[in-house]
Amino acid sequence: ARALQAGDPLRALGLVGRLENAEGLLIRGIAYAQVGDYELAETSLDRAIAITSSPRAKDKDARTITARARAALVEILLNRGDAGPAARAARESVLELERLGDQHNANMQRLVLARAEVLLGRIEEARTVVAEMLGGKVVLGADITAIALLADAEIAIRTMRASAARESLRRARRVLEEAPNPILARALVLLEQELSHPIARLVREKIARDADLYVDRLFGDAPAL
């Protein structure tokens, strides 16, 4: 589980081996999802839910594994591009995890919800979720903080706020320097690249230049796009 939290799914798979109990299947399912093998991930997670949902498994630990497996399935749903169903499932998942006292994973599902809202074009709703997460009222782990900052940067990029995006990415990089996570580090690099991609060509005095979100750096008083 610590390997998964640190963004090392291959180590998690090596440690869990072929355990067939619910917790082993949960960890294996999440690890498969992190490496992008969603079919194997769904199979493992569904099997974990089947075990913990049996009449003989009614304790809190079983319910928590079930809730975490469902949460992982929500992320897979979103990664497959089903933003609408993912948003609805994420809201339910947040409530389920909070009832079980699993605040860490509840917070993770809030960020899944924010990502879904972005894909659905509901930017203000996504911004509200992320702002609440980063508002300082909730104690967040390093991984949640980094994900929230990356979400904040993505929202800023989509709303053409280059300086805000760069600041969120700077803060995310600082968090990841203290708590390395290769998966989140790759996501950070991709957002940095997106921030610097040309979005237009500006012509002034017969000189054409590519312009990124920092268009004002090229021509001084050029209008924001």
Mean pLDDT: 89
Strand content: under 5%
SSE succession: HHHHHHHHHHHEEH
Helix content: over 70%
Annotation field: number of helices: 12
Count of distinct strands: 2
Distance between the termini: 44 Å
Offer a few descriptive terms.
mainly alpha; 225 residues; 12 helices; 4% strand; elongated; disordered C terminus
Q: How would you characterize the overall build of this protein?
A:
With 225 residues, this protein is mainly alpha-helical. Helices cover 70% and strands 4% of the residues. The chain has a two-stranded antiparallel ribbon. Mean pLDDT is 89; it is low at 216-225. It starts with a helix and ends in a 6-residue tail after the last helix. Helix 5 (60-79) packs antiparallel against helix 6 (83-99), helix 5 runs parallel beside helix 7 and helix 7 (103-119) runs parallel beside helix 9. The longest helix has 20 residues, at 60-79. The protein is built from 12 helices and 2 strands.
What is the strand and helix layout of this fold?
Elements: H1 2-5, H2 9-16, H3 22-34, H4 38-52, H5 60-79, H6 83-99, H7 103-119, H8 123-133, H9 142-158, H10 162-178, H11 182-196, E1 200-204, E2 207-211, H12 216-219
Antiparallel strand pairs: 1-2
Helix pairs in contact: 2-3, 3-4, 3-5, 4-5, 5-6, 5-7, 6-7, 7-8, 7-9, 8-9, 9-10, 9-11, 10-11
